[in-house]
Amino acid sequence: NAGVTQTPKFRILKIGQSMTLQCAQDMNHNYMYWYRQDPGMGLKLIYYSVGAGITDKGEVPNGYNVSRSTTEDFPLRLELAAPSQTSVYFCASHSGSTEAFFGQGTRLTVV
Amino acid sequence: GQQLNQSPQSMFIQEGEDVSMNCTSSSIFNTWLWYKQDPGEGPVLLIALYKAGELTSNGRLTAQFGITRKDSFLNISASIPSDVGIYFCAGQLWPTDKLIFGTGTRLQVFP
Asked: What is the mean pLDDT of residues B5-27?
C-alpha cells in the first residue's frame, strides 16, 4: 500500500515564485489535511477537506490555496512564495473515526 | 476554535524514568490518537483509542481515553534513549470527526 504520498520531498523557491505541493492517498479517505511545521514547533493546520469538492481554511491559510477535485488528491498551491513560508509541510488523511496517516513531508525553503 | 491543550511542553528525564503527558479540551472527541515524530520524519501513530474509558497498551506505552471524552493521557514506562522525539495527541471531534492536534510534548532522555 502506498498510503499518503507527498511530492516533492525537498524544494528551494525564490521569493515570488509559485509552486504546487502534491498529496495523494490511495485509501479512499474522505478527510485530508495540510499542515506546516516550523523548526521545533507543532503542527499548524493550513487547509483541510472533508471530501471531494469541499475545502475549508485552517489556522494559517494566508498565502495558500487548495483544491479537492478527486477523493485521492489534495494539492496545496503557493502563489507568491515568501520567506515566512519556509517550513516542512505535511499532508494527512483519514476516514471517519480512524487513525490519520501522514505523508513523509515536503521541506520547502524560500530564499 | 477547537483547541487541545497538551502538557507538558517539554520534558528532560533520565533513562529508566517513567513519563506522563496529557491532553485536555473543552470539546468532546470520538477518537483519541497519540503520535510520535522523530526528527526529519512525519508523525507515526503509537496508540489509537476509540471508546470512553478505554485503556490501551503498546509495549511500554499506555494511553487512556478519558470518561468525559474531553481528555487523554499517555504514559511511557522505563524510558530509553530512542524514546526521544515529539509526542502529539490528536482527537477526532464529535460529531464531525475533524482531526485536531495538540501542541506537542518534546521528550529528551539522558543516559
From this structure: 95
